[in-house]
Write a structure and sequence with these properties.
The chain contains seven helices and 18 strands. The protein is α+β, with helices and mostly antiparallel strands and about 350 residues long. Strand 6 (about 100-105) and strand 7 (about 110-115) form a beta hairpin. Helix 5 (about 265-270) packs antiparallel against helix 6.
Length: about 350
């Protein structure tokens, strides 16, 4: 027998659709020679036209788009959560499993993806369902002995799309023994063979396969340079960006096992600096979870997530259950009502 119901969390973000596409300079001008031959008059006319377009764009109401996020703890041993993100206006979805592994290395704590966390899988519906797999780099919490905690990233991660046969290798560079964290990233975008994917280092990629090179600071500005070109262009500037506040269903419309409601007493105790009380409340919840798990084992009941079709998948791509599809649709429309689960994990 399968028993549904576990901790879940839902939220949405509403953002302005103002980000322009990344274009190569060649897309905007016929060629570099023509650009060099333009006289000052034509440049001024072009600038005036551009300013007029910008003024028109500024006067128009900015388009709003919504992203909906649904996650549920699908496995307790090991602890793993599945997540699904949807943006219907853009035809973009993202999904994956959230699982972390932490290891103390002597002077730092290394946090890396767990065995079931194979990255984020992004699907572009409007581009013939292209799917991109983004793996996660490991992070290091350093400065424990010095009492000055900071996070650094030193690892290699990949972005792959078998459909387009395009792959990205990103190499995050760590700080040295002396000096501050570099927060640098270098990378390469290139054509690859999905049936013979044997390149894991930037230096191993043949020059004839390179499409774009990437470099910069992953906390500030990242640049790209097209192959066979010295035209280094800004790809993303993170400095002026800020997190958009999320919207969550009101607690009166949350299920009793939704994360915010489920852990509400523990959260309040922590915010009030009642740490002993928070520890006690947390212990009580975990004890109830253990008791429920023991009852399921005795009754030969199999744990089953409510919003996803299975606890884990070998490909790292969770699928929504019929209830999950309805929950995500309702979330996007602002309709939060759902019946309570028949059985709960705690």
């Amino acid at each position: 027998m399968k028993v549904p119901g576990s901790n879940d969390y839902k939220c949405t973000w509403t953002v302005e659709d103002t980000l322009p596409p990344v274009r190569l300079s060649q897309d905007d001008k016929d060629n570099k020679d023509k650009k060099d031959k333009k006289d000052k008059k034509s440049e001024k006319e072009e600038k005036d036209k551009k300013n007029e377009k910008n003024e028109d764009a500024a006067s128009k109401p900015k388009k709003q788009i919504k992203l909906s996020y649904l996650t549920e703890q699908t496995s307790h041993h090991p602890p793993v959560s599945a997540f699904y993100i949807n943006c219907p206006e853009k035809g973009i979805t993202a999904r994956g499993f959230d699982q972390l592994s932490a290891k103390f290395t002597g002077t730092t704590i290394r946090v890396a993806p767990g065995a079931h966390n194979l990255g984020i899988f992004i699907n572009l519906k409007n581009r013939d369902n292209e799917e991109y797999q983004l793996t996660h780099p490991a992070a290091h919490l350093s400065g424990i002995l010095r009492g000055a905690l900071h996070v650094s990233v030193a690892d290699t991660c990949f972005v792959t799309c078998p459909k387009t046969k395009i792959k990205v290798i990103l190499n995050y560079l760590d700080e040295g023994w002396i000096g501050k964290a570099q927060n640098r990233v270098v990378g390469v975008i290139y054509r690859y063979d999905p049936e013979n994917d044997d390149k894991s280092k930037i230096k191993d990629v043949p020059e004839e396969d390179v499409l774009v090179r990437i470099d910069g600071c992953w906390k500030e500005q990242v640049y790209f340079t097209p192959a066979k070109s010295n035209d280094r262009q800004l790809m993303v500037d993170l400095k002026p960006l800020f997190p958009v506040p999320k919207a969550v269903p009101p607690q009166t419309e949350q299920l009793c096992n939704e994360s915010q409601k489920f852990w509400n007493e523990v959260t309040e105790a922590i915010l009030n600096k009642q740490f002993s009380q928070a520890t006690k409340l947390k212990h009580n919840i975990e004890e109830r979870q253990r008791q429920k798990a023991a009852e399921r084992e005795t009754n030969n009941e199999e744990w089953q997530p409510r919003f996803f079709t299975g606890t884990l998948t070998p490909m790292g791509k969770p699928d929504l259950s019929p209830e999950g599809i309805e929950a995500l649709k309702g979330l996007h429309e602002g309709n939060y009502h759902l019946p309570e689960s028949m059985k709960l994990g705690a």
